[in-house]
């Protein structure tokens, strides 16, 4: 069967997005979900980049046994060795080496000659080949590389043992026809090309990443590198869900298929969005909240008569429930559990108890609980379960003639109760100042946005914020029917991420113990 290898780089290129930072447990959770999604390859990280990246790749290699687990390395001996150390326990390990090949990068960045680049590429592939069979090579900025030189590099690395050669459109510059022609040119001009799988890796700076990837598949590429929700460096990478569903829905046109279990797409999308902290835009193809919603009367009429009139995919095929079952305060634990299972969530008894309690509290405030409410509730539970500092209580006093004042109580790393109060320019500012007095980690709030998860005055509000500390950005999200509480939760989420990356502040101000 003609199959396209799906190479997921959510945990590497996706995590490279500004503001995205995942801890090891979160990476493992995503990797396990990618295994359920049945991607062929997981690029789990860039082991030489940091000890955290190394440990995450190692943990994924040891625990996620289905897909190929790949570690990225730049073309230096130490990086290749670190990639091998990180992936060597995988059931199916791969090392992915990259080195720039365009004149622009060679002249302005690397200041190396073409001969040096050619030699290093060959040597590093040979070094990796000494460790394992499955070696991938990427000439970075390939789409802006002179084709004749690109052919030479590809021939040399295949000769040295590369089993996959990846053609990155690193800066999202290529146009579909042009990129397709580049792939065709590679097949015609690289004599040993049939000894390797040709892969593509497209960025989305001009919004063409998916179009370029699909055109490359038409030209013979049989691996696509992509990310869930299209996240990644700058404007992101080609979106996995869009490529997979395009190949499936238009098999008549494209031909090859993938091994992806499309029914896991929606759940994977939400998991990545919740853990990375990037909301999915409502009109996003395949996974946006409007992707299967029909608003106009004519469209609704058509869909009711025959869904084929305005729907080219069955929502069930991407893992949406399809029907809108309504839960409310009279619903029991069983209905709650069944609905969550239909949405693709499985919980331990303890997690279920906690989520059900949160559901009942929500049902007291909100008459009808929709699937989006449930997803927001579950995401909130998942976010808070593993936090170092937990928000226990928040109370504000504000108004047009009073000084905004906040009282905050947190549960600290050792279960200690911490409480403080602060004045601010507004209620959110007052809360953040009170939390800062307790946690004592200097940072700057750079973004704050609030949106409602569903319609209506009793809707859940979701707050997304970004804070910066020591040149690094951290995103936080929080959801609650009260947007002031949601703001406090979002701040705790961002601070906890910061602490997970940086470790606790050694010289924190002494904390005030409550009571
Ligand atoms: O965009 C790019 O060129 C990359 C390489 C490391 C493959 O991410
Ligand atoms: Zn990239």
Task: Give a written overview of the molecule.
The protein is α/β, with parallel strands linked by helices. The chain has four domains: 5-276, Aldolase class I (TIM Barrel, Alpha-Beta Barrel), CATH 3.20.20; 292-319, no CATH class; 324-384; 388-502, Alpha-isopropylmalate synthase LeuA, regulatory domain (Double Stranded RNA Binding Domain), CATH 3.30.160. Helix content is 42%, strand content 18%. An eight-stranded parallel beta barrel has the order 1-2-3-4-5-6-7-8, surrounded by eight helices. A three-stranded antiparallel beta sheet has the order 9-10-11. Strands 12-13-14 form a three-stranded antiparallel beta sheet. It starts with a strand and ends in a 13-residue tail after the last helix.
List keywords for this structure.
515 residues, single chain, binds zinc ion, alpha/beta, binds 3-methyl-2-oxobutanoic acid, 18 helices, 3-stranded antiparallel beta sheet, 4 domains, TIM Barrel, 8-stranded parallel β-barrel
**How confident is the prediction overall: mean pLDDT?**
91
Pick out the low-confidence regions: 507-515
Structural class: alpha/beta
Shape: globular
Bound molecule kinds, no repeats: 3-methyl-2-oxobutanoic acid, zinc ion
Report the sheet-strand fraction: 15-25%
Distance between the termini: 68 Å
Count the strands? 14
Helix count? 18
Major sheet characteristics: 8 strands, parallel, barrel
State the CATH superfamily name of the largest domain: Aldolase class I
Q: Output the strand order for the largest sheet.
A: 1-2-3-4-5-6-7-8
| CATH-derived architecture of the largest domain | Alpha-Beta Barrel
Radius of gyration: 25 Å
CATH topology of the largest domain: TIM Barrel
**Overall tally of structural domains:** 4
What would CATH call the class of the largest domain? Alpha Beta
């Amino acid at each position: 069967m003609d199959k396209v290898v799906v190479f997921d780089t959510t945990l590497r290129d996706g995590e490279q997005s500004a503001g995205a930072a995942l801890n090891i447990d979160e990476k493992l959770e995503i990797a396990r979900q990618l295994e359920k999604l049945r991607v062929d390859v997981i690029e789990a990280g860039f082991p030489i980049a940091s000890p955290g990246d190394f440990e995450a790749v190692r943990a994924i290699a040891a625990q996620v046994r289905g897909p190929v687990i790949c570690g990225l390395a730049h073309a230096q001996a130490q990086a290749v060795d670190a990639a091998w150390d990180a992936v060597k326990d995988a059931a199916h390990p791969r090392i992915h080496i990259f080195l720039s090949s365009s004149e622009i990068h060679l002249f302005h960045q690397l200041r190396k000659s073409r001969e040096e680049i050619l030699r290093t590429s060959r040597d590093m592939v040979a070094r990796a080949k000494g460790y394992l069979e499955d070696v991938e090579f990427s000439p970075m900025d390939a789409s802006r590389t002179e084709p004749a030189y690109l052919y030479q590099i590809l021939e040399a690395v295949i000769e040295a043992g590369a089993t996959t050669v990846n053609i990155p459109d690193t800066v999202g510059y290529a146009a579909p026809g042009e990129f397709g022609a580049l792939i065709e040119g590679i097949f015609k001009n690289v004599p040993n090309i049939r000894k390797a799988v040709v892969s593509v890796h497209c960025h989305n700076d001009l919004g063409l990443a998916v179009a370029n990837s699909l055109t490359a598949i038409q030209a013979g590429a049989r691996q696509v590198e992509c990310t869930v929700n299209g996240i990644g460096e700058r404007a992101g990478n080609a979106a996995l869900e869009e490529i997979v569903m395009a190949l499936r829905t238009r098999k008549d046109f494209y031909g090859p298929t993938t091994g992806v279990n499309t029914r896991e797409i929606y759940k994977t999308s939400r998991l990545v969005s919740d853990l990375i902290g990037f909301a999915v835009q409502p009109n996003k193809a395949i996974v946006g909240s409007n992707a299967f919603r029909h608003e106009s009367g004519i469209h609704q009429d058509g869909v009711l008569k025959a869904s084929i009139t305005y729907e080219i995919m069955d929502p069930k095929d991407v893992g949406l429930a399809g029907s809108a079952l309504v839960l409310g305060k009279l619903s029991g634990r069983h209905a709650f559990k069944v609905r969550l299972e239909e949405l693709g969530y499985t919980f331990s008894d303890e997690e279920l108890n906690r989520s059900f309690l949160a559901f009942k509290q929500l049902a007291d405030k909100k008459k009808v609980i929709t699937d989006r409410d449930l997803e927001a509730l579950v995401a909130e539970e998942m976010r808070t379960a593993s936090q170092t500092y937990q928000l226990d209580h928040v109370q504000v006093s504000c108004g047009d003639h009073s000084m905004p004042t906040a009282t905050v109580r947190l549960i600290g790393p050792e279960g200690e109760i911490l409480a403080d109060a602060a004045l601010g320019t507004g209620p959110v500012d007052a809360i953040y100042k009170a939390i800062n007095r307790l946690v004592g980690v200097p940072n700057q709030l750079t973004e704050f946005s609030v949106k409602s998860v569903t319609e209506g005055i009793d809707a859940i509000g979701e707050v997304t914020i970004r804070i910066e500390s020591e040149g690094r950005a951290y995103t936080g999200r929080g959801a609650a029917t009260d947007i002031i509480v949601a703001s406090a939760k979002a701040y705790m989420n961002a601070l906890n991420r910061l602490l997970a990356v940086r470790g606790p502040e050694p010289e924190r101000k002494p904390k005030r113990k409550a009571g």
